[in-house]
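for ur thesis appendix - IclR family transcriptional regulator. copy paste whatever u need, i formatted it the way the template wanted (i think)
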Amino acid sequence: MGQHSGIGVLDKAVAVLGAAATEPCTLAELCARTGLPRATAHRLAVGLEAHRLLARAPDGRWRPGPALAELATAASDPLLDAAASVLPRLRDITGESVQLYRREATSRICIAAVEPPTGLRDTVLVGARLPMTAGSGARVLLAWADPQTQRQVLSDAAFTDRTLVDVRRRGWAQSVAEREPGVASVSAPVRDATGVVVAAVSVSGPVDRMGRRPGVRWATDLLAAAEALHHRL
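the 3d part is after this line
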């Protein structure tokens, strides 16, 4: 089972990850590769699946999950390096919470966030998975998503395809009490070096501070931050 840390359950979980990383495997193959009892291997594999470190292929074989790729990318991610410089400045300008989201299938994941030091705030934890059916960040990511994803999400969304047309025309999106009561937000697309939208940068906070039209107040600063992220990529 390789090196030992002295923490038995951790060593076994790492062994399970390593076994599935070699090539997709059945539970029986997982047991053979790790030497673990069937019940133990199954329990660990299911737990790792819950954390998205393992996933199951359509044929039921275990394989590496998407969280492993996210962790590997985060170890050397130009977007996160850029965010470390740009997001705190946007937070200081607006005095509100700032987030960076990536789309994964029909969800969006917060990959970076900074909070104002005091006052009521809209806290979104890094790693949080939010729906694509509500919120300005969702509108932005969906506006530049592929048509199939758009059709899949729009059937349950709080906005329409016309909304996405307006987002693309304007270059940013806003929402008020759409994702969460009392919260307003404004978001803009972040493009990589080739011009492809790879993320959405957002400013969010209480409606009482952000107002019913947060884009009027913060769109210019938000677009400048999105452009700064683009240049760093």
